[in-house]
Fold this protein.
Amino acid sequence: MLFRILKNSFLKRPKAVLLIFLSITMGAAVATAFLGISGEISHKMALELRSYGANILLEPSAVEGGFLREEDLPKIKTVFWKYNITGFTPYLFSIAEFSAGGKKERGVVSGTWFAKQLEVPGEDSSIQGIKGIAPWWEVQGRWPEDAAEAIIGAALAKRLNVVAGGDVTTIVRGRSQQFRIVGVVTTGGYEEEQLFAPLVTVQSLLQLPGKVSRVLVSALTVPMDDFGKKDPATMSKDEYEKWYCTAYVTSVAKNVEEVMAGSRAKPIWQIASAEGALLKKLNSVMLLLTVLALGASATAVSTSLMASMAERSPEIALMKAVGADRFQISAIFVGETLLISMAGGVVGYLLGDQLAEVISRTVFSSTIVSPLWLFPTAIISALSVAIAGSVVPLRRALLIEPVRVLKG
Amino acid sequence: MSEHTIHTPILQLTDVRKEYGSDGITTEVLHGISLTMEQGEFTALIGPSGSGKSTLLNIIGLLEQPTGGSLLMQGRETGTMPEEELTRLRGKSIGFVFQFHHLIPAFTALENVMLPLMLEEGRLTPEQRERAVWLLTRVGLADRVDFKPGKLSGGQQQRVAIARALAVNPPLVLADEPTGNLDTAAADGIFKLLYEINRESGTTFLIVTHDPRLAKRCSRVVELVDGRVVS
Ligand SMILES: Nc1ncnc2c1ncn2[C@@H]1O[C@H](COP(=O)(O)OP(=O)(O)O)[C@@H](O)[C@H]1O
Ligand SMILES: [Mg+2]
């Protein structure tokens, strides 16, 4: 019976059906597109944010005088969260006397990797170093390429009155090393008071072969939530597992700390929390937009159902008069809308998926794989829209008094 | 039915009243109607416009609740029945023919007739279909089964409505000015049809009409003036 009546309504009220179908399709399409690209947007955004600098600092755990070992560095590429680690670079510093053209100045000499080809057995080869994790550095000249080349911070360069092409002699505890300056670096920070040279050269200058005094790590992380802020030491085994398997900056830091002997990893909170806050806001905006889109389409559904209800009120009155009970009236009314919304959900999903793909191709120039949960989510969104949009019209329909409509 | 059966009247109204209005300003439209109808009667309900005929018919049809008095349907008190039971009783026991036929324009004649059957059974069976076809044949529309109401004349539409009223084979059929919008010839035809069905199947009819000529052909005439039965 239901099917028969539904079929008739469908075929004979194409305008109302089309209107409701379109509203639901649009809602489902927008929801699908938003949810489909939101993962991608977060990911892309997080990657962009990584250019604001490293978010994890590794230091020797000993209170004073300890060092990390350079030979441990490749292990960073093998940890559980290795795919989240976008780059890292070691440093070895010391206070030094710099002299150039008769001028003498104190400053910091810093040995590091600039763009080191890193081969780790079993892993893809990668390039690690300052160039990767501090893309905002501006180098006038070029980056060092051999052991006796260096770049110099702009402030120190000014004090020493050197430019690219000049030489600077660096003296640490009586040992000296001459560097050919190939670039002057502007960073806007304390780095401008330093001279950056290849790690290996500084190690030998300081007589600390194989030693590193800190490592900066740049990692993709998820925003800290209440659970992430809990102290891992107080967690149960299951909680700890969950924490460890969520890419919080703290759990990635812990992960890296475990492979670097004698190290202590600290999140760089200015960066990590600003980034987390931004991503969280972004996610809420996406969610809000999705909810708004669905709300708008529910409103549209409600409006067209109201109109179609007004048009059908004699019919509903008549069905009541010839014995249709509340349940049957509701079933006819909601059943019809739910059927339309199923179709709307499927079509909306297909459209939204395409839309998400187009957006991610044109805006992010990347292809996305739509997550498995997206289809059920689209259908459920469509059904929710249909149900939300039906509430008011259905109540009106149930309140129709046959006598009012039918009285001769 | 044997003469020894203690029979119940199909309809028994005692002092039925109906007020309309709210917030203190009420007008009584029916001032205490008492009326008994026996199974198989063919009764005309006449009276001037505004005398309360439609209101009374709707109360009998369980579409409206009286504000006073009692209404027994086949011996059962309806005043205390919950909404769903009234709906069920109405669907099963009462057929309606309205002045403006009120067919569903999107349905064919056959589907309109099957509607009460579908609502009652909750599904569609071949027997229902057969019965609907038979009813349409009976009202003279065998060749119009698949026509939509828009393609039928006023008289034909009213015949579909009559077939629909008879669909669940209810003991009582209520008709509110079924010929009010028809020309004399069509009105005569409809009236004759109702009369024949009454004869054939023993269905009780209560027919509101303006037309004294038609009322005269009924076995009983109830006249309503200003909300009171005068004869
Ligand atoms: N729903 C209603 N609300 C208020 N007054 C009504 C309502 N229905 C009918 N009436 C009034 O009741 C009286 C009888 O109406 P009705 O039963 O339609 O008379 P008839 O069918 O005999 O012409 C009229 O005065 C009409 O205005
Ligand atoms: Mg009337």
Notes: Strands of chain B lie at 11-22, 25-37, 42-46, 68-73, 76-77, 94-97, 172-176, 204-208, 220-225, 228-229. Chain B has one domain: 39-63+82-222. The pocket of adenosine-5'-diphosphate (ligand 1) is lined by residues B 20, 29, 47, 49-55 (CB under 6 Å). The radius of gyration of chain B is 18 Å.
